[in-house]
Specification:
Blueprint: H1 12-27, E1 40-45, H2 51-62, E2 66-70, H3 84-91, E3 97-102, H4 107-114, E4 119-124, H5 130-144, E5 151-155, H6 162-171, E6 177-182, H7 191-198, E7 203-208, H8 211-214, E8 220-223, H9 234-240, H10 248-251, E9 259-261, H11 282-300
Parallel strand pairs: 1-2, 1-3, 3-4, 5-6, 5-8, 6-7, 8-9
Helix pairs in contact: 1-5, 1-11, 2-11, 3-4, 5-6, 5-11
The structure holds N-carbamoyl-L-aspartate.
Residues 51-52, 123, 129, 132, 162-163, 225, 263-264 line the site of N-carbamoyl-L-aspartate.
């Protein structure tokens, strides 16, 4: 049985297949409307979510399946002290596939060891978020026709931003990738990621505090929210939260075909006036998240 815990669980060829399937679903949705008839997806969300949980649920519904689950730890037996292992062991008798978000790094991996059905990591603490990465990759491939040779700027909270860690790991497998990590000193990428990238022949990378210095080089600008819930003290959050605010004025020095991505939710880091710029791709990205999750559910259930 296959789970999706880390984006590196999938080979680049499997990722390409998923994106191809996602694109086919976008073009021919009717073909897929009954594929999951009689199947159930459980969404076990121990942490807040809008897009990830609802896009998983919409994905299963558009495949003709059903959904069940909870959206906060306080409404589940976790609040009574039940372990993740026990919860999953039980729920795998009620559902055919499980999407789980948890504040503890590694919780979905532990769950996958006890589960009788496929587990999808829908975000584990500040660690990984592989289905957001699939969402990012389908959006990049549809915009740029390739996942290789791109200069990708990651901006904001690169320390706690799990979407950054997963996307950087995924793109690091494609040739001639250049990463530009833009963050305040305190929110730089974790050292484990830096050492992995240092040993990777596909990738060159630099770290800087200035978005404006590197803007003209970027093919992709991946903006992120400062992850308030992972800070130890509120004063640090307040000091760092508005480090970067993307505005139409700053966009003037970017390439005409640059693509701005953001996993959302945004707080202040992209001014609403950027939304009308044709290079702002974050709402399309959120929509693509539903289609790629449809593709993922079909693959894990071996229905495609
Ligand atoms: C992200 C997450 O949960 O890590 N959101 C999402 O899933 N689209 C990013 C964030 O919360 O900032």
């Amino acid at each position: 049985m296959k789970h999706l815990i880390d984006i590196l669980d999938l080979t680049p060829a499997e990722i390409d297949e998923l994106i191809d399937l996602g694109e086919d679903i976008i073009e021919h949705p009717a073909k897929y409307a009954d594929k999951c008839r009689g199947k159930k997806l459980a969404t076990l969300f121990f942490e807040p979510s809008t897009r990830t949980r609802l896009s998983f649920e919409a994905a299963m519904m558009e495949l003709g399946g059903n959904v069940l689950g909870f959206s906060e730890a306080s409404s589940s037996s976790a609040s009574k002290g039940e372990s993740v292992s026990d919860t999953v062991r039980v729920v795998s008798g009620y559902a055919d596939i499980i999407a789980m978000r948890h504040p503890k790094e590694g919780a979905p991996l532990v769950a996958s060891m006890k589960s009788g059905v496929p587990i999808i990591n829908a975000g584990d603490g500040g660690h990984n978020h592989p289905t957001q990465t699939l969402t990012d990759l389908i959006t990049i491939r549809r915009k740029k026709n390739t996942l290789s040779g791109l200069t990708v700027g990651f901006c904001g909270d690169l320390k706690f931003g799990r979407t950054v860690h997963s996307l950087a790991n995924a793109l690091a497998r494609y040739e001639n990738t250049k990463f530009i990590f833009i963050s305040p000193e305190e929110l730089k990428i974790p050292s484990y990621l830096r050492s992995e990238l240092e040993g990777n022949p596909n990738v060159t990378f630099i770290e800087t505090e200035s978005l404006m210095d590197v803007m003209p080089e970027l093919d992709i600008l991946y903006m992120t929210r400062v992850q308030r819930e992972r800070f130890f003290n509120e004063a640090d959050y307040i000091r760092l939260k508005d480090s970067y605010i993307l505005t139409p004025e700053k966009m003037t020095s970017a390439k005409d075909d640059m693509c701005v991505l953001h996993p959302l939710p945004r707080v202040n880091e992209i001014a609403a006036s950027v939304d009308d710029d044709p290079r702002a791709c974050y709402f399309t990205q959120a929509l693509n998240g539903k289609y790629i999750r449809m593709a993922l559910i079909l693959k894990l259930l071996e229905l495609a």
